[in-house]
Amino acid sequence: MGLEAPIANAASPEPVAPASPSPIAEAPSVSTPLSEPLFSEALRSEYNGIDLAGRSDDQRSGDDPEAIAQALFGAQEAMEGNYRESSEAEIGNERSVVIFTQENLPDDSVQAIRTRLEFFRVDGPWQLEWAGEQYRCQEGRGQQDWGKALCS
Question: Which of 19, 40, 133, 146 is most solvent-facing, going by the fewest CB within 10 Å?
């Protein structure tokens, strides 16, 4: 999977997106291609940044960005109810993005958390460069779509 830019259509000056990606799958820990642009400061501004200073270099680096996301942000023990995790990834040669989603959380205010993780590498393992979170709230506890506002 490469980091191709949108393809311009000769008949239209507007960029045309590549073939539509798969939606987030229903099964736990499923990986599908990303449906959004890879890198953009505007995208980062839509997430609450996560302080990675408390994470060791060993936790923030490795051979598989999705495995790093799972290890850092996945459930460390069995969760009750219909909890599920999924990930979308775009893995390039030097830059990668993983969107790691946790849904049906056993929390009375937060229904789901979506974490964006941006990685880079130069002749070695992947390094987590940046991470941020968005939230979807339980009914009556805040936004029902993804946003960076904390649920009440």
Answer: 19
Residue with tokens 């799972």: 70
Q: Which two tokens stand for residue 21?
A: 């990606």
Long-range CB contact pairs, 15-20, < 8 A, 24+: none
- Take residue 122 and report the two structure tokens written for it: 């130069």
- Give the residue extent of every domain in the chain: 38-152
SS3 of 37-76? CCCCHHHHCCCEECCCCCCCCCCCEECCHHHHHHHHHCCC
Can you give the pLDDT of all 152 residues of the chain as single tens digits?
443 333 333 333 343 333 333 333 333 444 555 555 566 778 899 999 999 999 998 999 999 999 999 999 999 998 988 999 999 999 999 999 999 999 999 999 999 999 999 999 989 999 999 999 999 999 999 999 999 999 99
Asked if residues 149 and 142 have their Cβ atoms less than 8 Å apart, the reply is: yes
User: Which of 112, 111, 84, 116 lies closest to 100 in space, CA to CA?
Assistant: 116
Q: At CA 29, angle to CA 95 and CA 58, rounded to 5?
A: 50
